[in-house]
Write a structure and sequence with these properties.
This protein is α/β, with parallel strands linked by helices and 342 residues long. It is built from 13 helices and eight strands. The strands form two sheets. The protein has a four-stranded parallel beta sheet with strand order 2-1-3-4, sandwiched between helices. A four-stranded parallel beta sheet has the order 6-5-7-8. Strand 7, helix 12 and strand 8 form a beta-alpha-beta unit. The structure holds zinc ion (ZN). The site of zinc ion (ZN) has 7 residues, from loops.
Length: 342
C-alpha cells in the first residue's frame, strides 16, 4: 500500500479500494446474472452478518436481516414477519456462540429446515471475561463478580442491561478483523453450497473483501501501535469489545449493569466514578443503541475524555459511514485512535 496515503488518513485508502471493489463487483454481477435467474433468498440474524452476506453474495443473493441497523440485539424478539422471512429462505446465517438465544424458537415456528450456518465456525472464542484476566487487577475482580451474568441469570440489577443470554463464551467475535475473515469464508462456502452456479462470483467477491479486511487490520495495527501503553484503557457501556481490545492490545472496561433505559442510583454512579478513576481510564465511549447519559456523567466526573461513538452490535443506518461492516470497523478504529492519543 502507499504508505504516504495510509499515514495521513484512515478513509482514503479504504475508500479507494471500496470504489474498485464496487466496480469489479458490478462486473462480476453482470456475469452472474446471465447464469442466475433469481437471487437466492438468505436470512441473516443481524445487520453485520447481513452486510457480509450481501458483499459476498452480490446480486446473486437477496438478503433479509432480522435485527436491523442500530437495533438492540439484546431485546430482540422475533415477530410474525420474521417467521415469514425465514419460511422462504434457502440459507440462514447466524453468529453462534449463543448470540441468538431466540433462534431455535424461530426456526421451529417457521418450520425452517434449510441450511443453517454459524459464521463463527472455526473462530477461537474468548471467555466472557478473558480480557479482564489479561490485565489482572484487583478492582476488576471485585467488580466482575457482581456482573457474572453469563453464569447467573437471576442477577438482580434493578437497571440490569440484560446483555444477551450469554453462554460461557463472548459472542462478539466480529469485533476482530481476523475473525471477520473467517466469517466471510464461512459465508462464501455456505453460499456456494446453496447456489453452486454462482460459486465463482462468491469466490471472487470474498477474496476481494478479505483483502480489504486484512488491509484495514494491518493499517490499524500500525497506527494503534503508536498509542502509549498507559493510555490503552477505555470504558464502554457493554462488554462487546474484548476481541477488538485483544487484537490491538487495548483494554475496554465494560460498564455492565448499565441500563439503556433506567437511571442508575447515585450510589452505583459513585462506584463507577471511583472505578474509572482507580483504573486510570483514558476515554469513555458511547455505543450505538445504548443510552449516552451515564457515560457522559462519568466522563464529567472523572475527567476522562468522551471518546465518541463505537458501533458494537449493530451497523448504523444507511448513509452513515458505519453502515457497512468495513465502514463500521474503520470508524471504530479511527475513533479509538483519536480518543486514546495523548
Ligand atoms: Zn452485545
Amino acid at each position: 500500500m502507499n504508505t504516504r496515503d495510509s499515514q495521513r488518513r484512515w478513509l482514503r485508502p479504504i475508500g479507494r479500494y471500496m470504489a474498485q471493489g464496487v466496480a469489479a463487483m458490478s462486473m462480476s454481477v453482470a456475469v452472474a446474472s446471465v447464469a442466475v435467474a433469481k437471487p437466492v433468498p438468505v436470512v441473516a440474524s443481524f445487520s453485520i452478518l447481513g452486510d457480509m452476506v450481501s458483499v459476498v453474495g452480490g446480486d446473486a443473493v437477496e438478503v433479509n436481516t432480522l435485527i436491523g441497523p442500530n437495533a438492540d440485539a439484546h431485546s430482540f424478539e422475533p415477530r410474525p414477519g420474521d417467521v415469514r422471512k425465514l419460511a422462504d429462505a434457502k440459507l440462514l446465517v447466524v453468529n453462534g456462540l449463543q448470540f441468538e438465544p431466540w433462534l431455535a424458537g424461530l426456526v421451529q415456528s417457521a418450520g425452517y429446515n434449510g441450511k443453517q450456518i454459524e459464521a463463527t465456525k472455526g473462530v477461537q472464542p474468548l471467555d466472557n471475561h478473558d480480557h479482564v484476566d489479561d490485565h489482572t487487577d484487583d478492582h476488576d475482580h471485585d467488580h466482575d463478580h457482581d456482573h457474572d451474568h453469563d453464569h447467573d441469570h437471576d442477577h438482580d440489577h434493578s437497571h440490569g442491561h440484560e446483555h444477551h443470554q450469554h453462554g460461557p463464551q463472548d459472542p462478539h467475535a466480529w469485533q476482530s478483523l481476523t475473525n471477520a475473515v473467517m466469517y466471510v469464508e464461512n459465508i462464501r462456502d455456505a453460499l456456494s453450497e446453496v447456489a453452486p452456479e454462482s460459486a465463482p462470483v462468491f469466490q471472487e467477491n470474498a477474496a476481494r473483501y478479505i483483502e480489504q479486511l486484512q488491509r484495514l487490520d494491518a493499517q490499524a495495527k500500525e497506527r494503534l501501535a503508536a498509542i502509549p501503553v498507559e493510555r490503552r484503557k477505555a470504558m464502554v457501556s457493554h462488554d462487546a469489545l474484548a476481541y477488538l481490545g485483544k487484537a490491538y492490545n487495548i483494554e475496554f472496561v465494560p460498564l455492565l449493569g448499565m441500563s439503556s433505559q433506567a437511571e442508575p442510583s447515585a450510589r452505583e454512579v459513585a462506584d463507577l466514578v471511583q472505578r474509572a478513576r482507580a483504573e486510570h481510564i483514558t476515554a469513555i465511549f458511547l455505543e450505538n443503541a445504548v443510552s449516552p447519559a451515564l457515560a457522559k456523567q462519568l466522563a464529567r466526573e472523572t475527567g476522562a475524555r468522551m471518546g465518541g461513538t463505537l458501533y458494537t452490535d449493530a451497523l448504523a443506518e444507511p448513509g452513515h459511514e458505519a453502515d457497512t461492516y468495513l465502514g463500521m470497523m474503520q470508524s471504530n478504529l479511527r475513533t479509538v485512535e483519536a480518543a486514546l492519543q495523548p
